[in-house]
Amino acid sequence: MKKIAITCALLSSLVASSVWADAASDLKSRLDKVSSFHASFTQKSD
Prior knowledge:
There is one protein chain. By secondary structure, the chain is mainly alpha-helical. The chain has one domain. It is about 95% helix and about 0% strand. The protein has one helix at about 1-45. The longest helix is centred in the middle third of the chain and has 44 residues, at about 1-45. About 0% of the residues are buried. The mean pLDDT is about 90. InterPro entries: OM_lipoprot_carrier_LolA_Pbac. Keywords: Lipoprotein, Signal. One of its GO terms (biological process) is lipoprotein transport. This is Outer-membrane lipoprotein carrier protein.
């Protein structure tokens, strides 16, 4: 019974880490888009 609990815990931690990685990469791409947009916007205003 303990093996099943340990396996479930490992699987859930793996899923959580992959979800966090996806969220982090998504956030980074959004930040890159915003920064590039901001850079082009500030260049136009000069």
